[in-house]
Amino acid sequence: LANGFDVAKTFDGTNIANLGGTPPVYPFIRFHGDRLWIAGDNEVRYTAINVDNSWPAAQALNISDPKGSRTRFMLSYNGMLIIGKEGGLFRFRGSPVLGGDLNLFSSIGCDAGYTADVTEFGIVFKSRDGLYITDGFDVAPFSDKIRTLFTGVFAGAVGKYYPKNRQYWFSFPTTGAVNNTTWVGTIIEHPKGRRVAWHKYDGFAIDSIAIWDGGGDAGEIYYGRADNGLVRRADTTNQDLTTDYTCRIQSHHHTHG
Q: What is the pTM of this model?
């Protein structure tokens, strides 16, 4: 777990402890290619192979961009590490030791990192003028149907892909306060190509979204509300455990590797 403020943590199912080897205090962490990778605004550091407690200073990728922009996400997709910055997208392929390839492949950046998520078609993310999707080489609009919504920055927007229904959930604020509007896009295969059918939901105040995909889970989707602290299960006619429950952990956003 990493948040950019505290030392990255490790969790073994019971205990939380500091990650060993003095990792840099950066906000994005990911397991990729048998290594841990952790990203800040100008570099991505990585461990030795198959360990999580060795962070040599020389083992780093330079992701400085001409705009001096901030990093918003880092995700692993199709054998590549994709780093999304406000000023563009980086792609890393191969081994950082045996030979790798780092490229700034797009000038279309991400301004709301918690909208970025991996789907079977690519990585969906929000830019200033709409939602986009990338396969690590090309970047294209994810859907033009809701493009007129993007009249503000919406830096607090969140998004998540729900594989069970092949849906992308997107929540954002329209009033400058909490996220009060949610659009759910269902991906439909069509003879003329892939389409996204959108449906609008008001008043859910979705501040975070998670898919429960562990060994004993069934791919359920849960969301946390920004207005009252409740965590609820979606895509069901019943509330989880027949009653609301309140999350009492207050912390910075974390990413999980």
A: 0.88
